[in-house]
Amino acid sequence: MRKLAFLFATAILPLGAQATPPPSNGIKLPATYKHWQVLGVSHRDDNQSLRVIVGNTTAMTATRKGNTHPWPDGAILGKLVWKDSRHPLWQPAIVPGTLSHIEFMVKDSKKYADTGGWGFARWVGMELKPLDNDGGKPCFECHKAAAKTDFVFTRPAPLP
Amino acid sequence: MRKLAFLFATAILPLGAQATPPPSNGIKLPATYKHWQVLGVSHRDDNQSLRVIVGNTTAMTATRKGNTHPWPDGAILGKLVWKDSRHPLWQPAIVPGTLSHIEFMVKDSKKYADTGGWGFARWVGMELKPLDNDGGKPCFECHKAAAKTDFVFTRPAPLP
């Protein structure tokens, strides 16, 4: 029951001030990310984690207009990642457990020209410990696989 | 490649008019649901489907304030459900495939007193075929398992 109480007490979009952790790779945590709209969802069964992908207004407008080849400067994509847990009342449902990390891709084709035009940032755990990994170069190495979609893996989920 | 083209062409929050299907169980499709904020996420491994749970302003305000025991009248929760697929560039990632259905719980403690104070609605597939199932009584039968959380299974995902 302790865990359930914790989940309720630290709901997404909680009341109160936004946490302001130190920057990651020189990037500040976007202040309004909890209010962004959802772009996609994924579940990784290699590391047992659930993800929601959200976008800022620039990113969502670009998505609606199909203006993502390339994504425009100013677009920010956020990925909110939780470790798997099982819903206590519905066992076939894998639901968010503890927070793993939150991470962001920030498009600035000039500033981040060395990493595909994207800045990469990550904050780990509920304490939001910032990652500093050589300006996100290791992130970019994996994202090169998605070069044909401007280094973005996420494909907007289909809706009518 | 046809499938990928399809996914891009029917992005979440696409440009153009909102689809307006017939009502389900007498409930109209909420006009703005694609703009709602995210409350949670789940993956069901019994029926291989990925889900994003979103809420209208009343629901999200109630979540932030912890005012969900019970949820206030006017709160609407939406669940967007896709069949599983594998990301072609990142095989361990299960991502949205074709749309299964979208469904909503509408809180009106008087109007829906017979089903826990919630109206239940569902539209199936990209054609948004409305479900009519005896006013949502079969939905409510399963939701009785979550009576302690006002018949809502979703627990807001934790964030700092």
TrEMBL record, chains A, B:
Give coiled-coil spans as residue ranges.
none
Q: Which CDD domains match?
A: cyt_P460_Mc-like
Q: Where in the numbering of this chain does the Cytochrome P460 domain appear? A: 30-154
**Which keywords, in A-to-Z order, does the entry hold?**
Signal
May I ask which residue range the UniProt record assigns to the signal sequence? 1-19
A UniProt-annotated Pfam family: Cytochrome_P460
Write the protein's name. Cytochrome P460 domain-containing protein
